[in-house]
Amino acid sequence: MRAQFEDVHWTGHESFLVRTFDLPRFTVPWHFHPEPELTLILEGSGDRCVGDHLESFRAGDLVLLAGNLPHYWHSHAHAPSSKARPSRERARAVVVHLREENFGRSLLSLPEAVSWKKLLERARRGLAFEGRTASHAAKDLERLPDKEGSHQLLALLGILQTLCDGTADTRPLAGEHYLPACDDHAADRVRRVYQFIYAHLADPIGLDDLARAAGMSSAAFCRYCKRVTGRTPTRLLSELRITQACKLLTDTSQSVSEIAFASGFQSISNFNRVFQQIKATSPQTFRRQHGRTH
Q: Is the whole model's pTM more than 0.70, yes or no?
């Protein structure tokens, strides 16, 4: 359940991709990618996880994610249907990916695009849209796959503007300190550290490993990490490992001890202590409150 890097397959020279999914269930693994993502759930229900935030979703769920923010949508298991009345529930969604070089250094550098740039900056924690904003944007987003070329681009920009104007209907998802708030240069460096951690959560990770990922000395990285993330490297690593453990507690039937070692903890006692510090509850209680039936 370590966060996997997902290669968004671009088909040509487009600046964004619009895709529709019609599946029996959402089963995408815990993953991340550099491209910002806008997702509208048309049908289905289940659990949505963004960073360290876990909650239920249903049809109408509308979420904007900045690049490199780990996430998944997992459908609830359906009760077995009878032959007379087969289950017709599906997992349907419209998903938009924005190419970083176009919706970053190009379009968003225009002075007229400042509100869209701020929107994507706020999406570093993930943004859920509700109320009239979600309703209006969802109608346009559902029609977006039927448009082409400049008509599709103009429609997408209109959707982004609707989201910009709906501040009162916006709710951040991941915790305030889950991802650092820093300038672009610092963000790129910290992203490399996050990507290294996501790829090696179950492995022993030392301070020197994190410093190498950041391209810094160990002493310099300690000071840097505290300044840009508000946390020590040890605390940062522990929080991401506990987030990993929460996914395993909710999504698998593995024992708590198996989950502790799969999340990179060297002892059960240390795992239980750190879990209690970060989540203010025990792993067993967390599983009872959030776990699925397997």
A: no
